[in-house]
Request: fold
Amino acid sequence: MEIRLLEALRLVVHFLEREGIPFVVVGGLANAVWGEPRATRDIDLKVFIGERTAREFAALVASEFRLITHTPPLPPLIVSAEVMEGVTADFLIAVPGYEDEILARARRIPFADMELPVCSPEDLIIQKVIADRTKDWADVEGILMEQQERLDQDYIRGWLTQFAEVLERPDWLERYEALVRRIQR
Reply:
């Protein structure tokens, strides 16, 4: 892992722990744990802000780091900040329900000189399918190849079925099943 990214991760973890905000590592850093590592230049964290509003959380982040304004704007549940020059952190505000499962199922994994909660490989697959970008599908394939029989496929399929139905994206489940079949050959 790049030294600057690791230094920035330490700063973010210290900030969240000091403020008593539970978090889970997601995105490219979690992918490096469960799948095929790829270059990543940012830190993605699912944060559980409790009774705070998204605006209050953003103000708290702004008291520590420089907020980044995106054009077009990011959804209100994503707070993006420059932690140090050239390294950003995306704080993805958790919504009660499924995302409580992400926190409950997270696994503590050694990361350099830290031990951090990293989302489970199953939850990472679910999030990446929903993100539905080319790089996310490549990550899903890498996780499937690396984890294979260790994955709880019933859990993955259960949530993907619900999300596919609610978001009217049956193609997600079809594409996921095709990947599973291809890798199992």
The first helix runs from residue 3 to 18. The helical segments are 3-18, 27-34, 54-62, 98-105, 121-131, 134-147, 153-166, 170-184. The chain has a mean pLDDT of 93. The CA atoms of residues 3 and 143 lie 25 Å apart.
